[in-house]
Structure formats: C-alpha cells, structure tokens
Amino acid sequence: MSARPELAPTSTTPAAGRPTRVRRLVVVAGASVAALAVWAVADPLAGIDLTVRLSGTEQHVGAGAVVAASLVAGFAAWASVALMERLTRRARRIWTVIAVVVLALSLSGPLGAVTTAGTVALACMHLVVAAVLIPGLTVRRRG
User: Fold this and answer.
1) What is the DSSP track for 45-106?
2) Model-level pTM?
C-alpha cells in the first residue's frame, strides 16, 4: 500500500493563484473567440447586416468591436468573481445570479440593430459570451 503525500494548502503557496489565473485568462480569451466566430458566420459569411442605431446614428458592428466588447465583459466578469471570492463564502451562487442578471440586461443592446437578423445575430454573440464566461469563471470549492 503506497502512502500519498499530503499536499500543501493552495492558499499558502505563492503560486497558488497561478493555475486559476491562467484558466480564467483562457476562459476570457475563449469567450472573445466564440463571439468572433459568431460574428464571422453572421457578417462576412451570411451577409447579415450588423448595423446598430445608437443615439440617432447608425454604426456597423465590426470584428474589432466584437473582440473589444467581449474582452471588456470577460475581464469585468473575472474581476467580479475575484471580488466575490474575497467577500463571501457563497461566491459561486452570488456571482452566477449577478452574471445572469447582467446577461439579461445586456440583451437589450441587440435591440438597437436595424434588422431582425442583426438583432438575432448580436443576441447570439451575447449568449455565446455568457455561455463561455458563466460556467468557465464560476467558483468551485472542494471540500
């Protein structure tokens, strides 16, 4: 019978957060790639007009805007997860509720699209970013 060595608590090692940071960075990048993939199918491939009306002016949603918006959302989500982890033992539940509420609110953005197909495509981008970020950044505690 072999004895398994006892692992040191992860919270006391200097690199304890490194695997979590790397995993979360991959999740944020993955959300951005997923949104860009939806954009690529919708705009250049399917030819869907991704123009939105903002304050009376029309603006086309390009690849740069998709990447920038999804990265901002991802890093904001990451920061809020980290804050919840520091403030409460119920970080997973609280953060998930907050993330779902933010998703619901964000879905009002695509309503500014000038076409129905554009509204659907932009909503899909929001949903795919959430589908990557919410499970990917969710806090899981062992024990």
Assistant:
1) IT----EEEETTEEEE--HHHHHHHHHHHHHHHHHHHHHHHHH-TTHHHHHHHHHHHHHHHH
2) 0.84
